[in-house]
Amino acid sequence: MLGLARRALLRLGASPLPPQQAPPLHLPSLLLRRPASSSSKKAQSFTVSYLVDSCGLSPESALAASKTVQFATPSRPDSVLEVFRNRGLSPTQISYVVRRYPRMLVSSPDNLSAKLDFLCSRGITGQELVKLVVAVPGVLTRSLGNHLIPTFEYLSGLLQSDAKAVKSIKKNPRILYHDPKVLLVPSIAMLRDCGVPEEKIRWLVLFQPGAFFLRSNVRFDEAVGRAKAMGFDPLRTNFLLALQVIRGMNESTWRRKVDAFGKWGWSEEDVVLAFKRNPGCMTMSESKIAAVMDIFVNEMGLDPLYMARRPTMMMLSLQKRIVPRWYVFRVLLSKGLIRTTRSLSGFLGVPEKLFMEKFVTANLGEAPDLLNLYNEKMGLTCAS
């Protein structure tokens, strides 16, 4: 299958550069200022009206789009809109696609249908196809033979099945839009060079493809270097998760998160410790950090550094997990049904069904109002 990926990649060869054009003649400026012809003005006026009446664009958006594309008759755009309608796109979705890529209206309906047929043939159908087109309309501007087919074949070879390639594309359709040679292939080569196992690379492409296509000022190689410097092991999945987090924020955002933890006495080493245990902890907003640390430290009386070793606790929902269970915990602790706050981590982490059975229902004899209290804090209707 890896051979298939390599053969597919070869089909993604760069297009030859166009021949260098001769420099423009320096004509007098008056000759260059040709007034727009009446036919051009008519085409623009018709285009604006069509975009408003048939595509649902606002007059402002239609006028902006008419500077990109113009047409004098509705024949071609009508055919394109019919292709979209036949695939299940709603008027609102069609309007969004046209607003993003107005030139789509003058593309070949047959070519457009062929691209959509190809995606359907590979297992992206129905609403999944609609989601893909709306999420990344630019996919339909790519050449079927020179880009879409070889890119899909490359992904299929890399992931060792068409089904997994489809799953990756559904996770992040941009992986089908971008040329693999530009971002994906060099990044994968870098991961291999630093010792990331092949199955971990496939995991990243399958479940976290966005890590390769983040709009970030942190280059992939820079993120790899920072993760290694923090002590992440390339053999472990956390290394890949750390890459995604590092690439997802700039340096100023990172510093704000560090400062937010620093207000609770964490050193930079403590932040790195928490980050290594669960990289997702650095994706929390500063307000979430302040709120969860306040309840853990000021309400529950925990040592701030206790949380640095248990960052997953902080990432739980404040309204649906931490606060409601804390109230239950406090009642049980006051009645001697729980002896120490050391069990708080497990108390917060257990699944909902087990929590209800083990901590709420099992203690109603000693604490009859426990269920009502829990439902109240969860924002649910209290049981009668």
Structural class: mainly alpha
**Average pLDDT, to the nearest integer?**
88
Total helical segments: 24
Number of strands: 0
The low-confidence parts are 13-36
Approximately what portion of the residues adopt beta-strand conformation?
Answer: under 5%
Bulk shape: elongated
SSE pattern, N- to C-terminal: HHHHHHHHHHHHHHHHHHHHHHHH
> Cα-atom Rg, whole angstroms?
28 Å
Query: Gap between N and C termini, in Å?
Result: 60 Å
Helical coverage, percent range: 55-70%
Sheet bearing the most strands, described?
none
Q: What would your notes on this structure say?
A:
This protein is mostly helical and 384 residues long. It has a domain at 316-384. Helices cover 62% and strands 0% of the residues. The protein is built from 24 helices and no strands. The chain has helices at 2-10, 29-32, 38-53, 59-66, 75-86, 91-100, 109-121, 126-135, 144-159, 162-171, 174-177, 184-193, 198-207, 220-229, 237-247, 251-262, 268-277, 286-299, 304-308, 311-314, 318-334, 344-349, 352-360, 370-378. Helix 3 (38-53) crosses helix 4 (59-66) and helix 14 crosses helix 15. The longest helix is centred in the last third of the chain and has 17 residues, at 318-334.
